[in-house]
């Protein structure tokens, strides 16, 4: 029986992971605690085989007034929890970072490998990157750290940009037919990936993703189709998008390129892209 502690109660990733491993009740015992406030410091982490740290502030604001809070939660809280876990004898720590440490995307298709130097474009990405660096400082043979940098995570009742695209697909009669590529990660694929990492107690840097790259136009078309609606895709707006994609953040998020190199990832693929969209609606 492997005991796993999730720090970040009610988080999307943590909740879905608990649901996923409930398929194997004799193999995993998973608990989740809130790390808001200081009560978590009284929780004894000894006895857990792994801590899955998913608590954090997502990329929801670029307001400079939020900058200090991002660093306090994404960086400072992460290292405090990791040190508490290490001092309590936990052997394995999984940190949920983000693809955003590489920036928001590019006009050109520049494939990201593990060797690519991070280049965060905002304090959200930088706060995650700084947390990674501090974790590596306390890592040793008895405290193994796995840093996971997922791309856009989506699934049933997910948050962020994906539900906005679903809503757009339902409302708009027309959408740009623009050629771009994005790495994405279905929540069940991520949950299976995490399960495998906990089983092997792997350490290092991980760039999980779906088997297929995703084109935003095709995603919106497919989402509309699954909701019983047809969308007209047109290249009429492409010249304008090409001009704005590296200058306007919202356009870059939608039509910029942001992909990981395709590596052997078949072990955690629980659904292909079409079926994952069906399961997400």
From TrEMBL:
It comes from Chryseomicrobium excrementi. Residues 36-202 form the NAD-dependent epimerase/dehydratase domain. This is NAD-dependent epimerase. Pfam families: Epimerase. The lineage of its organism: Bacteria, Bacillati, Bacillota, Bacilli, Bacillales. It comes from the Bacteria.
